Amino acid sequence: MKEISQEIHRKFQELGVEIPLEDIEDRLDKMVSKFKVPKEEARRSVVNYFLKEHSIPKNQFYTGQSESPLMKISELNVDGKWVNIKGKVVQLWENTHESISQVGLIGDETGTIKFTKWGSAEFPEVVEGQNYYFKNVVVNEWNGKFQLNMNKSSSVEQLDEDITVGTSTITFIGALVDIQSGSGLIKRCPQCNRALTKGACMEHGKVDGVYDLRIKAVLDDGVTAQDAIIKRDLAEEMTGLTLESAISLAADALDQGVVLEEMKKLLVGKYYTATGSRVERYLLVDSMVPKSTIDPQELDELIAASEVV
Ligand SMILES: [Zn+2]
Fold first, then answer.
1. Axis-axis angle for helices 21-29, 2-14 (nearest 10)
2. What percent of the chain has pLDDT over 70?
3. Cα(217)–Cα(276) distance, rounded to whole angstroms?
4. What distance in angstroms lies between residue 197's CA and the mean position of ligand 1's atoms?
5. pLDDT band at residue 57, thresholds of 50, 70 and 90?
């Protein structure tokens, strides 16, 4: 047992990680004497525990190799797999946790995936719109969805090539059942384009916002509910309310909320065929057609196309 502990200790040392020998012995001893785990299995389990604790890829430990396979985003479907990825930072999101340094979306030709750069990652901050070679990042499954984690073992190189980000287009047919707050007449930060909350940007504080129209709709096909984001031009088309008329409506009522109420009156309860790209849980809508105006054959084709995706 002492031998096994020492061997594990030495192997971690070779990877530059100092784990107190007694911690290894304790853990190993508990497994073997208390839980009657066979020695070899106990060794593997103890190694895996410390690999996870120190964010070291398994293949780096077992083969001494630090190279993870280069993969495409659409192939990332194994929890715990360490990979290399060439991708573009498509979006950076508001960061909600102090142990996280950055969170956002990376894309390549095959699609997009959420990434989380933990505080332990030692490389500099990534920039929206830039292309990178991410090395030793780990796939993580959460709530049935895959994401990428970047930590102490991960590194990044900036790429000169420009990666074209592919999206998966989906079609969703259903009733518009709700329009959520944050819809209607909103203001955006002139610097980062984020929607303001009570006149303030998460990143830039109190700013002189720029007016915009947006609809955060909930579509329901009787089986699932789909959150959909509809941008200004489409929102204007659907409601007949232009940005200018929405501003004067709000000015007359001395209340921005009247625009949202008006939109609800006009849209809730209607059926639509929405087409767009799926980003995380949202459908970013490109086209929104009232269901009844679609010719049945076109509808069949749309449904067939969406099932392929
Ligand atoms: Zn801002």
1. 130
2. 91
3. 13
4. 11
5. confident
Cα(62) to centroid of ligand 1, in Å? 46
Q: Could you tell me the distance, in angstroms and rounded to a whole number, from the CA of residue 127 to the centre of ligand 1?
A: 15
* Residue 203 alpha carbon to ligand 1 centre in Å: 5
Query: Residue 200 — pLDDT band, cuts 50, 70, 90?
Result: very high
How many angstroms does the Cα of residue 216 sit away from the middle of ligand 1?
20
Greater confidence (88 vs 57) lies with 88
Most confidently predicted of 203-207, 275-279, 290-294 = 203-207
**Of 51, 65, 66, 38, which Cα lies nearest the Cα of 8?**
51
The two structure tokens encoding residue 227: 């959150």
CA–centroid distance, residue 257 to ligand 1 (Å): 22
Cα(92) to centroid(ligand 1), Å: 12
